[in-house]
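[step 3/7] fold_predict: job queued, chain A
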Amino acid sequence: MTTAVSEARTQPAPPRQHRKRTRRRRVTPWLMLAPATLILLVMTGYPLVKMAINSFQKYGKAQIFGAPPEWIGLKNYTDTLTDPTFWAVAGRSFALMAVLVVATMGLGILIALLMTRVNAFFRLLISIGLLLAWAMPPVSSVVVWGWIVDTKYGLLNWVLNTVTGTTNWSGHSWLIDPLSFYAVLTVIITWMSVPFVAFTVYAGLTQVPDEVLEAAQLDGAGAVKRFGFIVLPYLRSILLITAVLQMIWDLRVFTQAYTLQGLGGISSQTDVFGTYIFHLGSSNLGAAGAVSFIMVAMMLVISIYYVRKTVKDEEI
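[step 4/7] structure written:
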């Protein structure tokens, strides 16, 4: 009886049943992906297509209130690219991005190295602190920092008055001057972005073999040489990807800049890409769409350069 059952199990399935089973295996993954794909197309694809169409139309306040939009081709793009305000915003955005990437990557790497040196208790303490900073909503973070730099009751002005023994900092506004506005903005964004870099780099550092580091130390290599010639090559791809992500995130920063402008910053002097598009979109959706696609094109150029460089390094 047992032999008969095992023989029946080992017999190949009839051709028709086999084809049916094969077809089901091919279709099942697509059916499982279909709901997520549909939601993605509706939630992301439709606004993207609509924005692309608007960028080729005259879509001002009249069109927002029901007037038919007029097709004007590339006029929104040419107007944007010849507008000095756009290039001023682009310059500020890229300068802010450069400062943020350097600050975030530098601090993140230092904290990750520190986490490899301290014992488990302090490593846990640092991890909790980083997670709290990372988990805090951007608006809440900006409001808390806004209290610290408040003109009348801010902690920063009080500390500076106490340290200098004067009242020179009483009533000083850190947000009305564009330079100090960007300094505060840099501190806030760096504070929120460092945890991601620190955790990512720390995960990479745990993959560096201890034997190699010990062998280099026995050969007389100092900490700087061990980091430059052993640790850095292991982390190169991680650092590259993290830097690219930071560039993209820092270029499209919006919440922190917009909230800080609401606390006292002058938007016309402190706009970055995100806030500029938002302010432009309140009166001209066509121009806002054009600026959005130009910004996306700039980010794609940055991404493609780094992706190609990574692929080339991997081939070598």
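[step 5/7] annotate
The beta strands are 57-58, 70-71.
The mean pLDDT is 86.
exit 0
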